[in-house]
Amino acid sequence: MAEKDPITGVETTGHVWDETLQEFNNPLPRWWLWAFYGSVVFAIVYWTIYPSWPIGKSYLKGVMNDITYKTDAGEEITTHWNTRALLQHEMQNGEMALAQKAELKKIEGMSYDAIAKSADTQAFVQSFGKGIFGDYCAGCHQTGGIGVIGAYPNLSDDAWLWGGTTTDIENTIRNGHLGFMPSFKGTLSDVQIDETAHYVLSLSGEKSDAGLAANGEKIFQGQTGGCYLCHTKEATGMKEQGAANLTDQIWTMVDVKGLTSEKEKLDAVKSIIEKGVNRTMPAWNSRLDDTQIKVLTAYINSFGGGK
Amino acid sequence: MLKHESIETNAGLLIVLTLVAIGIGGLVEIVPLFYLDGTIEDVKTAEGKDAVRPYSPLEIRGRDLYVKEGCYTCHSQMIRPFRDEALRYGHYSLAAESQYDHPFQWGSMRRGPDLARVGGKYTDGWHTKHLYDPRSVVPTSIMPSYPWLLENTLDYSDIKERMIALKKVGVPYSLTKVEYDLNVEKFGKKVADTLDINNADANLLAQAQAENTDGDAARVTEMEALVAYLQVLGTMIDFKAHDEHEFIQFR
After folding, report:
1. Which residue ranges in chain A fall short of pLDDT 50?
2. Count of structural domains within chain A
3. B179, B197 Cβ separation under 8 angstroms
4. Are both A138 and A285 inside the same structural domain?
5. Which residues in B lie closer than 8 A to residue A15 (C-beta atoms)?
6. Are A122 and A38 in the same domain?
7. Interface test with B, best of A65, A89, A287, A296 (most B CBs within 10 A)
């Protein structure tokens, strides 16, 4: 050690390769050394302020860095720094969190009419509602509530299976629904299903065979099919059962309007009579709170399909 | 005296000492978590039982498929205590909620959304549709399709061995009457029944048939297992029944 390179006079490590290749042992740059000492000091300060070293079954909790928050009962708690307390403190004191809470509090006491009329509240509903709708509803009902034909109902049109008033929408979100229509394969013969489908198509002005439709009407309106029990004698649907209005030219299970040939339309309707419908809308009352449900209702109502 | 030069010129020694230096850093951070009070929160139900339970046999198989299909490479299961995460995903994850996970699925990559509280958010039918073809329900999704989940019959012939393996690393599945009674005490009878290794096959079949995602009651598909697992994620604790203060106290 402490050998010196004869040419530069710099201390070397004494390692020599290929006869003359040496490793210089230059001192560390001063700035680097101070940065290193600085980081040591920083670490010690950090350990002191934030929770750090374990001691027995506990640990150093940190000093001069306490966080205060309130329990549900209103008791004020002061604790050492930790991310959970920090979040709770922010939810109770943060500017944005409080602003949001104030808006939600206001909505809690407002009627749906008042929400729709107040431009400020409506703006909040659009922004907050977009978030929760996107998170909880759009997976099925799609952005803007346009739905998926055959699976998830459209929330932006005029047809409401379970009712489109704010009370109905709120109830649907809160408690969910089981959309059920039995399968008629086996109950009705193939011919009867064909006749019923002709009648169903005739209800909304689609082309159908008048003779077959007349037979289908008897099945629909009589005990053979019993379709009227849910869809009603007028075939305008029943919201207590979530039964569709068959006269309004709006199709939720099969895309009759999107099909061109008469045969395709007929087959589409027949397939539903044969398979039935089995859909679930989950209940949200355990996951969303009352005010969130209210905002969602107002948001969905604003799609334009609300009544 | 250990000299700079002797370490630098001896690769074996250098490796050993490097491992020791890194090891100290790791051990100091990890080991205390095993004995510190409050690492895992004690969360009870209204009946005074443990809120978080080990997975049922069907959920175990679903979880294995979750790992097998590599879901964790894009989905985390760890909601951090930030306001924006609370707004999007729900309550932050508790250590208690992954105490029976071996290995845990916290992850750090969120190419897709966090799944720690996906349970109950969508219907079984939605999950089936979505896993079969994600674009059919989320047009902008970049998730791959997993159609074989619906085609593959679930192999659960080794479900007992899987539970025994988990039991060995500390998950309280029961083999004996004594262990079963302890589980009844800890989780209540209903849950304890699902943790009984001796009835694993029957329990798995019963849960799959009750769920019956694919519409064929006689057949248990991989889809049914995976959906059962997804539907239980993050649902075990009823956060409305707890004051936030309870969870903060553990930190």
Report:
1. none
2. 2
3. no
4. yes
5. 5, 9
6. no
7. A287
Question: Considering only alpha carbons, which residue of chain A is nearest residue B93?
Answer: A84
What's the rounded Cα separation, in Å, for the pair B75 and B82?
Answer: 18
The dihedral sign for the CA sequence B144, B145, B150, B152: negative
Question: Does B123 contact A135 at a Cβ distance shorter than 8 Å?
Answer: no
Give the pTM. 0.88
How far apart (Å, rounded) are the C-alpha atoms in residues A109 and A267?
A: 50
Amino acid A93: pLDDT: 95
Are both A45 and A120 inside the same structural domain?
Answer: no
The answer to whether the Cβ–Cβ distance between A140 and B137 falls below 8 Å is yes
Residue of A47, A87, A279 to mutate when probing chain B, most B C-beta within 10 A: A87
Q: Is B82 in contact with A71 (Cβ distance < 8 A)?
A: no
Residue A100 falls inside a structural domain: no
Tell whether A43 and A158 lie within a shared domain. no
- Structural domain of residue A43, as residue ranges? 12-49
Question: Residue A22 forms beta bridges with which residues?
Answer: A16
Give residue B1's pLDDT: 58
**Residue A125 maps to a domain:** yes
Cα A128 to Cα A153, A292, A293, A297, distances in angstroms: 22, 9, 11, 12
Task: Tell me: do A184 and A44 sit in the same domain.
Answer: no
For B129-147, how does the pLDDT look when each residue is reduced to its tens digit (9 = 90+)?
Answer: 999 999 999 989 999 999 9
Beta carbons of A84 and B80 less than 8 Å apart: no
